[in-house]
Each structure stands twice: as structure tokens, then as C-alpha cells.
Specification:
The complex is a heterotrimer of chains A (292), B (309) and C (424).
Chain A lengths: L9 H32 L3 H6 L12 H8 L11 H31 L5 H9 L6 H15 L5 H24 L4 H9 L4 H9 L4 H17 L2 H5 L8 H9 L8 H32 L5
Chain B lengths: L17 H37 L15 H7 L2 H32 L6 H9 L6 H12 L5 H7 L16 H26 L3 H9 L4 H12 L1 H17 L2 H6 L11 H11 L3 H32 L1
Chain C lengths: L4 H21 L6 E6 L4 H16 L3 E6 L6 H12 L6 E3 L3 H8 L7 H7 L1 H4 L2 H7 E2 L2 E2 L1 E8 L2 E4 L1 H7 L7 H13 L3 E4 L4 H26 L3 H4 L2 H12 L13 H9 L3 E5 L4 H7 L9 E4 L7 E10 L5 H14 L2 H11 L2 E2 L11 H16 L2 E3 L9 H16 L5 H14 L2
Parallel strand pairs in C: 1-2, 1-3, 8-9, 11-13
Antiparallel strand pairs in C: 3-11, 4-5, 6-11, 6-12, 7-9, 7-10
Classes of the chains: A mainly alpha (292), B mainly alpha (309), C alpha/beta (424).
């Protein structure tokens, strides 16, 4: 695009300086909570009590991180958030894989194999995005009981898949709708089947939207608290629940540095995913939902 | 929506393999059927179940003692419900509008060939990765007058600086807007940026040749092109606004008093903490109804106009 | 439902693993109890650990299922979800009238045989025993008795401000002014509905007396709720706001307590669980901090009893473990250790109190005295007086009145009448 402020006049230069200032100010706004968390997590307790939130640590220490990972007490157990961290991983990976696969197939079937009522089916599933999760807690609990999946990791995976496919279907449907039908039609004439066309034609070009779907699902499921707390037992709680217990647990004086370190640990996987794959995320959205 | 469906269906030729062809015909529906079944049962089934419960006087656990629309009548006289509903209007409206405005502004600014674009974009986007379970404590600090921004600015020498919205019942709802905008506006920015990159340069060049100024080009040419992006963004943002729950619990706990209650927290509190599942279900149904009443016309008009455009 | 197949298979593997796991660890008669509780604050967790240890000494397994947040609100949500799925934990921290509600649903198991062999009827005070029974059968076991109407104070600040520990509301307001002038926050408080209600019920008791309290908060008598005495109590309650700081919104109670500990605030109106925080900070009662009945409530005792209710289980060894748990809870060793750490008094009054500090001894004395003289009342703020829906509606009125500058006391009293009725 050439519609940029680039001419080297003083006015243009001023405009450009202004532009950068605005952008950097905005960046500071977005950064502030994270910076406070990070600074607090490496400060000794006395410094937290004495200094301002944004003061740099005078004696940085990593012991809060060590404590949050392996020693901090959540309730009666004092083994930090590590156990729960792995619970989360065990829930998130299958849930993301299954919901993305189902979403991809749904999106493919809805766009390349349209049938009477396929738009209605899509609309039907789309509204699934809007149901408040609080509403489904009790019926879901009962259903999980019937299925014999109550309080298990498998149950949590199932719940996340159920309420994730509305979104993954939306993503893939919007992506595939923009892919020309000609290739698919030609392949059909050649006698290629449903799965073969998907495998050979659609899947190879789906990388951007798979990234979007995986990031979205990963973030949603990893950050979930409500389902995690309601459908878990003592040994299947995800990391968000442990974090909540830790933050609400206090040994006389609250150890804010440990709280913050635990919060950072709980946030790390999603942060890493966003930072590493953020570029592809934006790219995928360009190709996908935008062109709806 | 079904009325506008079935565009040109590719002609399918069955080449002497009728059985296989028929299977191929049914396969898409077969693939979709588990999802449809799940959707019908877990979304619509549960909605109906909730509606049924809203007609009962269920307390701690569901019971089927029907009382007609009594729960709705009680809800109408419940002052806290009206506070929650009004709050959703204020919060949702401001949240969506500010996110769209800020997101668009940042996207346009970032689209001016900024060298650090990648880094800045990541900074704007990362809040979306964090839940309020994680950032709630920090937000509480930042907004707390004695600890956070107010104390900090006063520490810099501006003794009269006041920022105590969190403790003011009339202003506390706006602190929710701030934190929610912080979380989602970067995401909207990314959507808009993606949209800007997708606009055909020749349209803009033509406008430039006509001698239009840059702001005018954006206002008249570029922004109208972004209409589909606005649509996606509004859908995602309203979904976030309606489901806002962690945010309230982590930041204000609904307080001061119940000044920052939202329908989602109202429903949760009544159904779970106060053993009034009947009343909670009624509020959930009204909430869902309200959402659909706003979304369906929007969805319909957008989808229609796009078919014609 | 092809999508479910892998999940099912996964579940089978899980189940297999779990079975293998329990078999490996099995001992004679050893059962496990999963205990859902919200004893997560420092003193509480340490106290509950004693019980866990005792269970393990008897060869049973304690599966700790702690869910923190909102005075047990989150834990109750989890409990309902687990009950709906037909898979409740074997024991859960449930209290007050809520025990009756779970009992009515037929989900609780009877503890009568333990109660009989251990002689609970003779051991427990009637007030306590009544709360634990549903339909005449014991379904829960009391862990402790909390007194809610306490005042905690920092003697250094009182001395610096030149005031005595207040014994009436007027004295409290007067002391507050002096403390404010000395540069401290008079009253530490956290702006959460239950904390507002905790202060309110102490003020109500002081200004209107125990009989009125019972009429209004237990019997929900509309004449009392909307009456002149209630209006006055509400006005006094709102005045306590002047004694608090501006940043209290949403603050947790233990943070408020730590303000008293760290010489920022002079006093706090809070139940005796606050003592656990003082103890954890290594302070001695009578020297480093003071305890006294909330001003004007010397003759009253608002009780809050923690209890563990046992859910019906089918497995015999689990049943055995539940009974052991119920027995151990009232064992002197646990009662002493737990209540020492938590700040409360034992649920059975026949224990030797010499290990306890002066605050606890004072509390037990007041408990026995008020039980005879009629000053023993259930705490509304802590779910001992009314069912959760009425309590919630009351909380709404109290907290909204306390926080809204333009609602007057008459309006609030009228809303209380409505709250009590609307929830019926």
C-alpha cells in the first residue's frame, strides 16, 4: 500500500513521530499488567510491601518461581502447581486435536458438499457459541454422570470438545468457503471420494486456519476455570483451579510474589503460543473469518 | 437462512458405481451428524431443559414442581436483576464500540509501514492469551486507589490525581470496560489489520489520483471495505461481553454492593450460591432471549446484504 | 456417536489404571475419603492437616479436594455439580440449614451408629447437635464452634491514640476519631457482601439486643425487619463506614487482618478465625493483639459451626472410612489441634482448655453462659440462621445499603422485609 505518510516534509515527519508515540503509548497500556506481574514475581516480599508496583526489584530472586512450581500450598497439599499443570496438558491436547479435526471435517462438508439445509445446520451450530456456560453446568454434570465420565479427565475433554466445535466449525467453514470449488468439482468428476478430496485438496492448503483453530481452542481450554472446577475431582483439577486455590490460600501474610509466579506459570503456555504463532494467527484470520 | 441456501451444486455423475456413489452422497451428512446431534442435545436440549427449570420452583438441585411463570414475575421485581441487565447494556455497548474504535485506530496506524510492526502487534495481541484468573489480581491492584495507578501517579508528584473508580458504585462498571478492552482490543486490531492488508491497492490509488486527502480516503474508501471484518469482530466481541464472568469475579466480585453485577454472574449466584435454580434459570432464559433478539436481526441483515453486494 | 469412541476407550484405560492403583495400595479395611472443603487459608489448612494425619494413622486415605474462593461458594458449586453427576465426594464441608436441604434430598448418609457408640447426644451441646441432625438422625459431624462477634485490636495503635478497647458502639466511634487523628485506619474491613453482613449483625446485636436479633434474623418477623430498631441499627451500621478506609472494595478478610497485624489499622470486626492469622504471624494474644466481644455484644454469642457432612456411599471400605473420619473429628486430639490452629472452640465442651489462649477460654465461657441465659444466636452472615436464598437476598440489601450513598435506612429496612418475603 502506498497510502502511507512518507513524504519527507517537516509536517510529515512530525506526523510520523506522533504516530510512533501513539503506538508506543498503546503498547505500554497493554504491557502494564504483565510487567507488574513479572516484576512482582521476582521481588522479595519486603520490597513488594515497601515499593511501588512498577519499581524495579533491588534484589531479584527466583525463589518464588521455584516455590510456586513445586512447594506452594493449595489447600492441604504443598506441591505447587506442577501436578495441575500436567493435568491441564493432559486435558488440553486431546481436546484441541479432536475439536479441530471435527471442525475441519464439518467446515469441509458444509462448504464443498452442500446439501439442502446445510446453511441451516451451520446457523444451528453457530448459535452454540452464544450459550452461557453457567447454564450448562448442571445438565452437563448429569450427562457426564450418565456417561460414567464424571470427575475424569476424559469427561473434561468431552466437555471442551462439545463446546469447542461450534467455533472450530465456524473457522473452517469460513476458510473453505473462500477456496474455489473448481478443483473439488474436477476431483469429484474423476471419482475421488469425500475423504480423498479432503486429504489431497483441502488439507494441504489449510495450514493457516488450522493454526487459528488450534490457538483459539488451546487458549480457551487452557484458560477455562468454570468447567475445570465443576467437573473435576481432587486428582483431575486443571492449573487454573490450582491457581485459584493458591491465590486464595494465605499463610498469614499473602505471598504475592509466589501468587504472581504461579500466575505466570499458568499463563506461560498460552503466552508462548501467542508469541510464537501470533504471526500465523493473524495471517490465518486474513484468509479465514474476515472473508466470511 | 435456509431460504438463501443451495448455490450452484456441482453436477455429480454416478459412473456405474451406484452403491459407492450413494455412500459418497451421504458421507457429508454422516460426518456432520455427530456434531449436529451434539449441538441439538448439548446446546438446544440444555436450553430447553433450562427453560423447563425456569418454570419450576427448583431450589438447590433441579425439581419438577411447576409454578408457571412465577420465577419470571419475581425476576421483574428484583432490583438486582435490573442492575445486572442495565450493566450488560452499558458494559457490552461500551466494550464493543471502544474495542472497534481502538482496534481500527491501532490497525490503521500500524499499517503505516512501521518497522517494529511485528513486535508491537504481538504486544497488542497477547492479552487475549491470558484469562482473568491469571491477571485478575494485578488488575485489582492497578485499579485499587491505594495501591495502583492512583498511588503511582500521586507518587510522581501529582497529589490531586484521583482514579478511584473501583470503589465508586457509579463508576465501577467502567473499570470492567477498561480491563475487558485491554484484553480484547488487540485481537480486534489484528482482525482489522488483516482486513486492511486484503484491500485492493488500486482502489486507493484511484482515490489518491482524484486528489482525496488521506483521512478522507480512509473514511470513504477503506473503512467501508472493512464491513465484513466489523461483522466478525462484533460477533466475537458480543460473545465475549455476554459471557463475561471471570472478569467480574476477579476484578470486583460484583461490588461495591452489587453495582457491577452482570446477568452471567447474577445467574450463577442465584442458581448455585443461593439455591434458587428456578430463578437462575429464568434469568438465563431472559439473557439468552435478549442476546438473540439483538443478534438475529444483525446477523440476518448482514448476511442478506452480503449476498446482494 | 463416532466422536465418542476414542473418549470411551481413553476412559477405560483410565479406569484400568485407577483400579490397578488402588489395588496396589490397598491395606486391610483401608478406605479412602475424598473430602471437599475450603479450609485453604494458612491457619485452616494447617489445622485440617491434623485430621488428615489422624486418618492416615488409622490406615485410611484422605483425598484432599480443596476448592477455595468466596467463603465456600465455589466449593458449593462443585458439590452440586458432583451431586448431579451422581458422584458426590464422600465428605463435604456443609453447614447450618444447608445440611437440612441436602438431607431433604436424601443424599446424606446416617452417622447414628457412630453417634451412639461415641455418645454424641451427651457430648454435644443441644444447639450444636440440632444443626447436625436431619429428621432426628445425625448426618454431619461438628468440627468446631466459631464466635462471630469479636473485635480484634492492635494495642500499640490504641495506646498511641490514647484510647481503651471500646466496649460500646459509642466508645468505638469515639475511639475511631482518636485513632484517625493518630494517623491510622480505625477499622480494617474488606468490602465483600459477607464481611459487610458480619459487621452488620454485630452492630444489630449491640443496638437492638439478642431478642430482637432473633426475631429479625431467624424468625424473619416483618415487624422487626421493617421496625424502628432496625432502622436505627442500619443507620449505625452505615456510620461504621467512617471508620474504614477508602480502598476496601473487594478486599479479602485476611488482608484486612494483616492490616491490623502490620500496624496499619487499629481494629477489625471479624469472627475468631481471624486469630489463626494472628497466630500464623507469631503474635501472642493479650500482648501483641487484643480480643474482645464486638462492642456492645458482651452478652451475646453469634455462633458459626463448621461441620463435615457425609454423603451416602455404596462401598463398604469407604463407608468404614467415613465412620472413622466422623469419630476422629470429635476425638480430643483433633479437636484441640484443629481449634488451636483455627481460633475457634471445640465442638465438645468437655475438653481441657488449658492449652488454649485467653481469647478461646473467654469464648468457651461466653458460649456456656449465653447458652443458659439466651444470648446464643446463629449467625446470619455465616449461613447459620436462614436458608441460602434468604441470606443472599439479605446480603443484597445490606451490601447495597452500605455502599450506596443515596439509599436511606427506611428504604433499606423496607427492602429487608421484601427480601425475607420474596425468598419464601
Amino acid at each position: 500500500m502506498d497510502n502511507v505518510i512518507r513524504r519527507r516534509t517537516p509536517a510529515a515527519r512530525l506526523a510520523r513521530a506522533l504516530l510512533l508515540t501513539v503506538l508506543i503509548l498503546a503498547a505500554l497500556f497493554y504491557l502494564m499488567p504483565l510487567v507488574v506481574m513479572l516484576l512482582t514475581s521476582v521481588k522479595p516480599l519486603e520490597e513488594i510491601r515497601a515499593g511501588s508496583l512498577l519499581a524495579l526489584p533491588m534484589n531479584p530472586t527466583f525463589s518464588p518461581w521455584v516455590k510456586a512450581w513445586g512447594e506452594a500450598c493449595t489447600g492441604m497439599r504443598c506441591d505447587g502447581v506442577s501436578v495441575y499443570f500436567f493435568n491441564s496438558i493432559a486435558i488440553v491436547i486431546p481436546a484441541v486435536l479432536i475439536s479441530t479435526t471435527v471442525g475441519a471435517l464439518n467446515g469441509y462438508a458444509l462448504t464443498k458438499w452442500r446439501f439442502k439445509g446445510s446453511e441451516l445446520v451451520f446457523a444451528l451450530m453457530l448459535f452454540g457459541c452464544f450459550i452461557p456456560f453457567q447454564v450448562v453446568l448442571l445438565p452437563m454434570a448429569q450427562t457426564l454422570g450418565w456417561l460414567g465420565l464424571a470427575s475424569s479427565r476424559a469427561g473434561l475433554v468431552l466437555v471442551h470438545v462439545i463446546f469447542g466445535i461450534a467455533f472450530t466449525t465456524l473457522f473452517f467453514r469460513n476458510f473453505y468457503v473462500a477456496i474455489p470449488n473448481e478443483l473439488v468439482s474436477a476431483a469429484k468428476l474423476d471419482g475421488a471420494g469425500f475423504f480423498r478430496i479432503f486429504w489431497r485438496i483441502l488439507l494441504p492448503v489449510s495450514a493457516p486456519i488450522i493454526v487459528v483453530s488450534v490457538i483459539w481452542q488451546f487458549t480457551q481450554i487452557w484458560n477455562d476455570f468454570l468447567f475445570g472446577v465443576a467437573f473435576s475431582a481432587h486428582d483431575t483439577q486443571p492449573v487454573t483451579v490450582a491457581l485459584n486455590n493458591l491465590v486464595n490460600t494465605s499463610t498469614g501474610v499473602r505471598e504475592y510474589n509466589v501468587d504472581m509466579a504461579a500466575a505466570m506459570i499458568a499463563a506461560l503456555p498460552t503466552l508462548v503460543v501467542y508469541v510464537l504463532a501470533g504471526k500465523y494467527f493473524v495471517r490465518g484470520l486474513t484468509a479465514g473469518s474476515v472473508k466470511g | 437462512m435456509s431460504t438463501v441456501s443451495s448455490p450452484t451444486r456441482p453436477a455429480r455423475v454416478a459412473r456405474g458405481r451406484p452403491a459407492g456413489a450413494r455412500l459418497q452422497d451421504w458421507l457429508p451428512r454422516l460426518v456432520l451428524s455427530p456434531s449436529i446431534a451434539i449441538s441439538l442435545f448439548f446446546v438446544y436440549g440444555f436450553m430447553i431443559w433450562t427453560f423447563v427449570l425456569s418454570l419450576t420452583n427448583s431450589r438447590m438441585l433441579p425439581s419438577y414442581d411447576f409454578v408457571g411463570f412465577a420465577q419470571y414475575a419475581r425476576l421483574m421485581t428484583n432490583e438486582r436483576w435490573w442492575v445486572a441487565a442495565t450493566n450488560l447494556g452499558i458494559f457490552g455497548g461500551l466494550f464493543v464500540v471502544i474495542c472497534l474504535g481502538l482496534g481500527l485506530l491501532l490497525a490503521i496506524l500500524l499499517d503505516q509501514r512501521i518497522r517494529q510492526e511485528g513486535a508491537l502487534r504481538t504486544l497488542y495481541l497477547y492479552p487475549m492469551a491470558l484469562s482473568f484468573i491469571v491477571t485478575g489480581v494485578v488488575w485489582k491492584w492497578l485499579l485499587n486507589p491505594g495501591l495502583g495507578i492512583q498511588a503511582m501517579v500521586r507518587g510522581w508528584g501529582f497529589e490531586d490525581f484521583t482514579f478511584n473508580w473501583l470503589t465508586d458504585p457509579d463508576m465501577a462498571i467502567y473499570t470492567l470496560v477498561i480491563a475487558a478492552v485491554w484484553q480484547a482490543s488487540g485481537f480486534v486490531m489484528a482482525l482489522f489489520l488483516a482486513g486492511l492488508r486484503g484491500i485492493d491497492d488500486s482502489i486507493i490509488k484511484a482515490a489518491q489520483l482524484d486528489g482525496a486527502s488521506l483521512p478522507r480516503i480512509y473514511w470513504r474508501v477503506v473503512i467501508p471495505c472493512l464491513r465484513p471484518v466489523v461483522f466478525s469482530a462484533v460477533m466475537i466481541l458480543s460473545h465475549i461481553a455476554i459471557k463475561s464472568f471471570d472478569l467480574v469475579v476477579a476484578l470486583t466480585g460484583g461490588g461495591p454492593g452489587y453495582a457491577t453485577d452482570l446477568p452471567a454472574t447474577f445467574m450463577y449466584t442465584h442458581a448455585f450460591t443461593r439455591a434458587q435454580i428456578g430463578l437462575g434459570s429464568a434469568s438465563a432464559i431472559l439473557m439468552l432471549g435478549g442476546v438473540l433478539a439483538i443478534l438475529i436481526p444483525y446477523l440476518y441483515s448482514e448476511l442478506r446484504s452480503r449476498k446482494h453486494g | 456417536m463416532s466422536a465418542l469412541t476414542p473418549v470411551r476407550a481413553f476412559r477405560k484405560t483410565l479406569l484400568g489404571l485407577a483400579v490397578a492403583g488402588t489395588l496396589g495400595a490397598a491395606q486391610a479395611h483401608a478406605g479412602e475419603v475424598e473430602v471437599l472443603h475450603w479450609w485453604t487459608s494458612g491457619g485452616e489448612a494447617r489445622a485440617a492437616n491434623v485430621l488428615k494425619q489422624l486418618m492416615e494413622d488409622e490406615g485410611h486415605q484422605w483425598e484432599d479436594f480443596a476448592v477455595a474462593g468466596g467463603g465456600g461458594e465455589t466449593a458449593m458449586t462443585v458439590l452440586k455439580s458432583r451431586a448431579m453427576s451422581g458422584n458426590p465426594p464422600s465428605a463435604a464441608q456443609i453447614k447450618g440449614p444447608e445440611i437440612q436441604e441436602w438431607g431433604e434430598l436424601g443424599l446424606l448418609g446416617s452417622l447414628d451408629d457412630v453417634a451412639q457408640s461415641e455418645g454424641w447426644d451427651d457430648m454435644l451441646p443441644d444447639v450444636v447437635a440440632d444443626v447436625m441432625k436431619h429428621d432426628g438422625n445425625y448426618v454431619a459431624v461438628p468440627v468446631n464452634v466459631h464466635r462471630v462477634n469479636w473485635l480484634w485490636a492492635n494495642p500499640k495503635i490504641l495506646e498511641e491514640a490514647g484510647v481503651e478497647l471500646p466496649t460500646t458502639l459509642d466508645e468505638m466511634f469515639a475511639a475511631g476519631e482518636a485513632i484517625r487523628e493518630a494517623g491510622y485506619i480505625p477499622l480494617a474491613h474488606g468490602g465483600q457482601p459477607w464481611q459487610d453482613a458480619t459487621v452488620f449483625e454485630s452492630v444489630l446485636l449491640a443496638s437492638a439486643g439478642t431478642d430482637f436479633y432473633r426475631r429479625a434474623m431467624v424468625d424473619l418477623d416483618p415487624d422487626a425487619l421493617g421496625g424502628e430498631e432496625m432502622i436505627q441499627a442500619l443507620e449505625t451500621f452505615k456510620r461504621t463506614r467512617e471508620l474504614m478506609d477508602d480502598d476496601m472494595s473487594g478486599r479479602d478478610w485476611n488482608i484486612a487482618t494483616s492490616m491490623v497485624i502490620s500496624d496499619k489499622a487499629a481494629m477489625q470486626l471479624m469472627g475468631d478465625w481471624a486469630k489463626g492469622e494472628f497466630t500464623a504471624a507469631g503474635l501472642t494474644p493479650g500482648e501483641d493483639y487484643l480480643c474482645a466481644p464486638a462492642p456492645g455484644t458482651q452478652d451475646a454469642f453469634t455462633f458459626n459451626i463448621d461441620s463435615l457432612a457425609m454423603f451416602q456411599v455404596s462401598d463398604d471400605s469407604e463407608r468404614e472410612a467415613q465412620k472413622t473420619l466422623a469419630r476422629l473429628v470429635l476425638e480430643p486430639e483433633f479437636q484441640e489441634a484443629f481449634n488451636l490452629a483455627k481460633g475457634s472452640i471445640p465442638a465438645r465442651p468437655d475438653l481441657d482448655m488449658s492449652e488454649f489462649d485467653t481469647c478461646a477460654q473467654q469464648s468457651l465461657e461466653a458460649f456456656q453462659q449465653t447458652a443458659e441465659e439466651g444470648g446464643l444466636v446463629p449467625s446470619m452472615a455465616h449461613g447459620m440462621a436462614v436458608r441460602s436464598d434468604v441470606q443472599g437476598a439479605m446480603f443484597d440489601v445490606i451490601t447495597n445499603f452500605f455502599n450506596s450513598p443515596d439509599m436511606d435506612a427506611e428504604q433499606a429496612a423496607q427492602r429487608m422485609v421484601n427480601a425475607a418475603q420474596a425468598a419464601l
